[in-house]
Amino acid sequence: MDFAFEVLAEHGVSPSMAQIARQGFRKTGEILAPLTALLTLVNGIRGDVAHNDVMPAPRHAGAVPSYAMDTYTREGKQSFARFLKTNAGTADWILENLPNRGRSAFLGEWVFRIEGGCLANRWAGDAADQLRKQYELGCLGVTAEQAKQVLALMRGDMHILDRIRADVMGEQK
């Protein structure tokens, strides 16, 4: 694998990025780290300072951060199932536009985009901007217009989901 990192250096990946990629690969064994290093070549970073995304205010369901109740926890799955039974705009859209199978997973993906899609130290560049837009609007099997609509609906419905999450956590005592 050393050869691969030598090739990255020959093609212009900065020494610091190559070292970060090398450590990422060493720790995870995943090719994602070296591929990320390659992205630095096409990103065309604009400016010399990273910017922080606007982070949503921290929310809790009881003593637990709300983001901890996601599609990978029993309480999160229960909260999503209850949310889909409400008259929230997002729930209505999902019920009208998606088959029954996968609705909770779809909801979980949108909630993650709102709760977990923000970054500290985000570098702006053409490739980064394109990948972010593709991730947010193009990776769930709906049109970009539908994706924008659902994101707006979900942002407006987060307080409903948080109330349900708090109820679920209250029942766990």
Annotation field: number of helices: 8
> How many domains in all?
2
Radius of gyration: 20 Å
The order of strands across the largest sheet is: 1-2
Order of helices and strands: HHHEEHHHHH
Low-confidence stretches: none
Helix-strand category: mainly alpha
Cα-to-Cα separation, first versus last residue = 50 Å
The overall pLDDT average reads: 86
Largest sheet: 2 strands, antiparallel
Q: What amount of the residues lies in strands?
A: under 5%
Task: Pick out its properties.
8 helices; 62% helix; elongated
Structure description:
62% of the residues lie in helices and 2% in strands. With 173 residues, the protein is mainly α. The chain has two domains: 2-42, no CATH class; 60-171, no CATH class. Strands 1-2 form a two-stranded antiparallel sheet. A hairpin with a 2-residue loop joins strand 1 and strand 2. Helix 2 runs antiparallel to helix 3, helix 4 (74-83) packs across helix 8 and helix 6 crosses helix 8. The protein is elongated, with a radius of gyration of 20 Å.
What topology does this entry show?
Layout: H1 2-10, H2 15-28, H3 32-42, E1 60-61, E2 64-65, H4 74-83, H5 89-97, H6 103-115, H7 126-138, H8 144-171
Antiparallel strand pairs: 1-2
Describe, in short, the structure shown.
With 173 residues, the protein is an all-alpha fold. Helix content is 62%, strand content 2%. α2 packs antiparallel against α3 and α6 packs across α8.
